[in-house]
Amino acid sequence: MSRRSTIRSEKIIVRNGFRLRGNVLILLFGFFLVGLFLHYKGRTEPVVAFWNDVRELLGIRRSRADHDTANPYQAPEPRTDEASEDRTGSSTKPADNEASADGSATAENPVGDGSSGQKRTSGRLFDFEKQVDFILPAGLSNDQLVRHEGYTLRYDENLKNPVWVAYPLLAYEITGDAEREGSSFMPDPAVEGGTALPSDYTRSGYDRGHQAPAGDFKFSQRLMSQSFYMSNISPQAPQFNRGIWKQLEEQVRAWALRDGGLYVVTGPVLRDGLPTIGRVNEVAVPEYFYKVILYCRKGASPDIRMIGFLLKNEPSNERLQSFVVPVDQIEKATGIDFFNKIPDDLERRLESQSPADMVDGWFF
After folding, report:
1. How far apart are CA 277 and CA 236, in angstroms?
2. Is there a contact between 110 and 148 (Cβ–Cβ < 8 Å)?
3. Of 178, 240, 328, 341, which shows the fewest CB atoms inside 10 Å?
4. Quick check: 291 and 248 in contact, CB under 8 A?
5. Nearest to 126 by CA among 328, 341, 307, 351
6. Does 210 qualify as catalytic in the annotation?
7. Is 281 annotated for ligand binding?
8. How far is C-alpha 77 from the geometric centre of its chain's CA atoms?
9. Of 39, 67, 148, 210, which is the active-site residue?
10. pLDDT per position as a tens digit, 90-105
11. Half-sphere exposure of 320 (CA within 13 A, CB side)
C-alpha cells in the first residue's frame, strides 16, 4: 500500500471517529431534552425557560420578531360589557373538580382586552378559578375597569392612581430576556378620563412606582412596555420604591418560581384628603401600599394559600415578614373584596389567618 493511501485511510478513520463522538453528544443532549420534557409532565413552558437561560449563557439574543410574537396562551374574551418606576437608583380546602396535577398555580381567566384575549395557564383549575374574572376584586365599581394584555386594573380618575392591579404570575414569565431599557412612562390611552402624566412626577420628590412590576413580564417585551402605562403607576418615596417594595416584588417572583405560579393583586391604599403632587394633574400620594397573593394547587396534595402585605410609603430596614397582615385588615383599609369567588367558608378562613400562620405557610 502506498504512503498516500495510508494517509487517506488514517484521515477517514479520524473523521469517522469524530463523527461518532459528535453523534453520541447529540444523542445524549436529545435524551436530556426528552427527560426534561417528561419531568415537567409535557408542559413546554419550563423547557422554553431553560432554552432562554441557555441562550443567555451563550450570548444568543432573540430577534425583534421574537419579542413581538403574540402570547400563544390564548382564551376567549370574557363575557362582559366592560371594556377595556422610576428606579433610576439603582390553608387549605380541596374543591370538587380536577386541577393542576403538577402542583402549579394556574390562571385560566383572561387578563387582556378583546384584541388579545390573553390566557396564561399552567394546568387544570379549581371550579372557582374557572369563573370569569376570578382574579378581579369586587367593590369600588364606579372606577373605570381597564384591561391590558398582562394585567387588569381599576383606575381612580380623581386621585390619578390605580385602585388595584391584578394579574396571574407564572414561573416562565419571569425567565425571558425582555429588557426595561428603552421603555418610557406614558399616559394610558385606555383610561377615558386620562391618567397622570410622567411630568406630574418630575422634581416632585417621588418615584413613578410600578404596581405590576416590569420584572414580572420578562417573557414579553411588549407586555413589559405596557407596564409603563401611568395607570399602573403611583407616587412612591424613592427609598421605599427602590428598597422594601423592590424586595417584596423580588420575593413574589421567587415564590412564583418555586410554586409554579401565583395570583397577585396589588395597589395603593386610597382615601380623600391625601397630599398631592403634579404639574398638570393632582396626583394623590398614598400613605400605604398592599399586596395580596394567592396560590392554588389541586392534586394528590391540595394546597390553597393566601398572604397579605401592608407597607407604609417610607424607607424601611425591617424584614418582609414584619409587614404581613391578615387580608381582612387590607380589605377594611381599602374597601376592596379580594378573591370573592372563592367559596365563602374557605375565603373567610384564608383571609382571617394570623400573620404567624401566613409566614409559616409562605416563608420556607
Report:
1. 11
2. no
3. 328
4. yes
5. 341
6. yes
7. no
8. 20
9. 210
10. 333 333 333 333 333 4
11. 20
Helices (H) and strands (E) in the chain, counts: 9, 11
CA gap 291, 324 in Å, rounded: 10
DSSP class per residue in 83-126: -------------SS---TTS-----S--S-TTT-B---SS---
Write down the pTM of the prediction. 0.69
Name the nearest CA neighbour of 174 among 262, 288, 109: 262
Q: Is residue 32 part of a domain?
A: no
Domain containing residue 135:
75-362
On whether residue 49 sits in a domain, the answer given is no
Position 60 in a domain: no
Counting as low any pLDDT under 50, the low residues of the chain are 7, 13-15, 17-18, 20, 40-44, 62-122
C-alpha span between 101 and 260 (Å, rounded):
12
Count of domains in the chain? 1
Reported in sequence order, the residue ranges of the chain that DSSP labels E, i.e. its strands, are 144-147, 152-156, 161-170, 207-210, 233-236, 261-268, 276-277, 283-284, 288-297, 303-312, 324-325
Cell of 238: 424613592
Residue 293 sits in a domain whose CATH number is 3.40.570.10
**Calpha distance 326→333 (Å, rounded):** 11
Local structure of 71: helix, strand or coil: coil
